[in-house]
Amino acid sequence: MKLALRYIRSLLFLFPAGMALATNASLEGLSIAFGIVALTGAFATTIYLFLHFDEKLNDKIVMELLADAFFGLILFTYPNPDGRFFLLVFSAWIFIMGLLFITRGLTKAGIENFYWFYLLTGITYIIAAFVITNYNPDFMATIPFVLGIVLVVYSFVNMYLMVKRKGDIYSN
């Protein structure tokens, strides 16, 4: 069951990525899809934590829950969202995910073989956040593809780590 949550969350974020890459969706459409996926991921994590309330809490799961819920709610409660607002929200979300990866790589002693992968992935997410935030308005038609690629990388990195570390991702 522990890995099921990770698989569900990773697969959920492939939905807006596929929407961005395959259908050439607008930023407003991606904003709605990303908000739904983030809130669904937060809801699934909440159910997981409720069902496993007697186990030790993992800081990464709780931080992902808070980030998904916060940014999902921001996307749905902001009165007049536009494409630029979504880019800022998405950049902040991927920046936080990058910080989670970097702190995981720097602080967890049991991941000797993977610390460089966590650090590299976290730095890549932070760079992607700055690129998306400062994207040139002349090339705004290409931003859905960039968002799709970032979400595909995010999902596949999570799935790769699940396979390689086999549930060890949940240990504190």
Structure description:
The chain has 172 residues and is mainly alpha-helical. It has one domain. Helix content is 77%, strand content 0%. It has seven helices and no strands.
The structural domain count equals: 1
Helix content: over 70%
H/E series: HHHHHHH
Number of DSSP E strands: 0
Overall pLDDT level: 83
Task: Count the DSSP helices.
Answer: 7
Q: Determine the N-to-C terminus distance.
A: 17 Å
Name the poorly predicted regions: none
What structural category characterises the helix and strand content? Answer: mainly alpha
- What is the CA-atom radius of gyration, in angstroms? 16 Å
Task: Briefly characterize the structure.
With 172 residues, the chain is an all-alpha fold. The protein has helices spanning 2-12, 14-23, 27-51, 59-77, 83-107, 115-133, 143-165.
Which labels suit this protein?
172 residues, mainly alpha, 7 helices, globular
Ordered list of secondary-structure elements with their pairings:
Elements: H1 2-12, H2 14-23, H3 27-51, H4 59-77, H5 83-107, H6 115-133, H7 143-165
Helix pairs in contact: 1-3, 1-7, 2-3, 2-7, 3-4, 3-5, 4-5, 5-6, 6-7
